[in-house]
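Hey,
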Amino acid sequence: MPRKATAGDDGWRALTDAVKEMGQYPTRAEAETVTRIVLSALGGQVIGEERVALAQSLPPQAACVVASQIPATRRLTAAEFVDSVAARIEGATPATARWDVSSVLSVLPPLIGEDLTTRILAELPPGYALLFGRADLAPHH
């Protein structure tokens, strides 16, 4: 029987370890910071049922980061999303922010499931699929 998540939250540690490995960050602290910033930005972009499902699929600490964001009134393009993350990370450039975003978002599909990933991508403007580590094959609206 799986044990209940505790304040230490092994799920959060597993998530940030995956981000640390994917992004090749030197420290867990750096991976945790990037994970918080990217999930916070994502939390403002994903709305409705997908936002609820995303929060329910994440470890509790990550779910709080997503759920605490006020939904955006206008969805950012993928490039604007990366720029918004760059603005939150000291010394970031668009290239390093894209790396950070991809390092976090590309570890989400195995965690949240392909169905939810597909639903989230269907709600976001074109271009996000690449950030989630998927080919962007969906027809553009």
